[in-house]
Design goal:
heterodimer; A: 122 residues; alpha/beta; Transcription Regulator spoIIAA; 5 helices; 44% helix; B: 138 residues; alpha+beta; Heat Shock Protein 90; 5-stranded antiparallel β-sheet
């Protein structure tokens, strides 16, 4: 896999619940691509966002800083942000940078969806 | 084993260093999680060198088992103005929460993800030396 190329998809899974799948290098461009997708989903009425990082193995602090901005925007709107499929290093980085204080971390997408759907704010 | 990379300041060049960490760490038998931690740390060190170093940077990777514990040693060197490492406090989530700028995490992440970090900095040369022991998880 070319790590420089971010592969990203977004989808409204159910009313109020948006899913972003991102694989690749989360640098400033990757982080911004995720932020843009999140902004579109939030504007479309998604109060709960799940970001699946399966296939993402390398990140940098600039990209994660952009994710922090998404988190704050969601919190301002009383929304919820969750992540799944994090490597141990990405999980630790999120812990150090404070994302885990405000976002929920799930081991995989199936677990995340089963917990989040039904609790999604509309 | 030694790898020396002379890296220009071009977009995503830090991934070249990360790939070298993956190769050298793998050859050492380092656990995947340790390789990934060292990769993120070297990416952060390269980004700092590019932002503050004022030009080409040099990344050196070597192995050391002189203490009986094999480890990967990574030096990231730049020729910038230098800084006082004691004047760079650890960043924290509470400090950046609500702030417009959320930057300034590089050294904090490096110190947290690596087992040992030494910084020598003078005007014209800064070297960040990082060690990751083979047996340690991140």
């Amino acid at each position: 896999m070319n790590e420089e190329q971010m592969k990203l998809s977004k989808d409204v899974v159910t009313e109020g619940f948006g899913l972003i799948a991102a694989a690749g290098y989360i640098n400033n461009e990757g982080g911004q691509a995720i932020a843009d997708a999140a902004t579109e989903l939030i504007a479309g009425g998604c109060g709960t966002l799940l970001i699946d990082l399966e296939g993402t193995r390398i990140i940098n602090s600039i990209g994660v800083s952009i994710l922090l901005e998404i988190m704050e925007k969601l919190l301002e709107d009383k929304g919820r942000l969750a992540f799944c499929n994090l490597t141990p290093t990405i999980s630790k980085t999120f812990e150090i940078m404070g994302l885990v204080q405000y976002a929920t971390i799930f081991p995989d997408r199936e677990t995340a969806q089963s917990k989040l759907i039904g609790n999604a704010s509309v | 084993m030694e790898v020396v990379l002379h890296l220009p300041v071009v977009p995503n060049v830090e991934l070249v260093a990360a790939k070298a960490v993956e190769t050298v760490g793998g050859a050492l038998g380092m656990h995947q999680s340790g390789i990934e931690a060292a990769s993120v740390a070297v990416v952060e060190a390269c980004l700092n060198a590019m932002e503050h170093g004022g030009g080409q940077m040099v990344v050196r990777m070597s192995t050391d088992d002189s203490s009986g514990r094999p480890c990967l040693v990574i030096d990231v060197e730049d020729q910038g103005m230098g800084f006082d490492p004691n004047e760079t406090p650890r960043n924290s989530a509470t400090r950046v929460h609500g702030c417009t700028s959320k930057r300034g995490w590089g050294l904090t992440l490096i110190r947290e993800l690596m087992d040992e970090v030494q910084i020598r900095s003078n005007p014209g040369q800064t070297v960040v030396r990082m060690r990751k022991y083979v047996e340690n998880a991140p």
